[in-house]
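FORM 12-B: Structure-to-Sequence Request
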């Protein structure tokens, strides 16, 4: 935020804030982005999810967690898929779509610790900050999941069967 010359020299300049999303396990890119965030003097970072969905899920998650209270993180759809329990009981498990995604989720789980999984499970789906609703996909989908829930599908599998189109309305 460039505030230009301040009219009132007693006014406090607001802290810089960074918003990032869709890291997808890309630790070299995340390292570069975090370096830029530091050079810009951002004191707060909002991470809007999809940390783990990529080649280095554990490394990316360790980098985010290593930022401590400086980063505020919410779940993306990748984290929701990762946390889906009992994939062996997934409805329509043998469809053409599910086996590859199950193998991918198994890879991610194998590269994360129990502590990582607990940390991810505790993340919120959305948060409000200065009048804005921060989400990974679409605010209405996160605030009103009944908009997309599949009737008759167990609650634990709803996220697995949903992929938000984003804000196209």
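FORM 12-B RESPONSE
SEQUENCE OUT:
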């Amino acid at each position: 935020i460039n505030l230009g010359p301040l009219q009132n020299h007693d006014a406090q300049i607001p802290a810089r804030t960074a918003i990032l999303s869709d890291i997808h396990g890309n630790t070299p890119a995340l390292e570069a982005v975090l370096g830029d965030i530091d050079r810009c003097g951002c004191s707060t970072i909002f991470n809007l999810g999809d940390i783990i969905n990529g080649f280095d899920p554990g490394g990316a998650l360790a980098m985010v967690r290593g930022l401590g209270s400086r980063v505020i993180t919410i779940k993306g759809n990748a984290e929701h898929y990762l946390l889906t329990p009992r994939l062996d009981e997934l409805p329509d498990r043998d469809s053409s779509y599910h086996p590859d995604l199950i193998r991918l989720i198994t890879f991610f789980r194998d590269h994360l610790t129990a502590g990582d999984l607990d940390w991810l499970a505790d993340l919120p789906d959305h948060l409000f900050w200065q009048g804005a609703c921060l989400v990974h996909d679409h605010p209405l989908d996160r605030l009103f999941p009944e908009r997309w829930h599949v009737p008759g599908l167990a609650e634990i599998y709803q996220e697995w069967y949903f992929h938000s189109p984003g804000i196209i309305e």
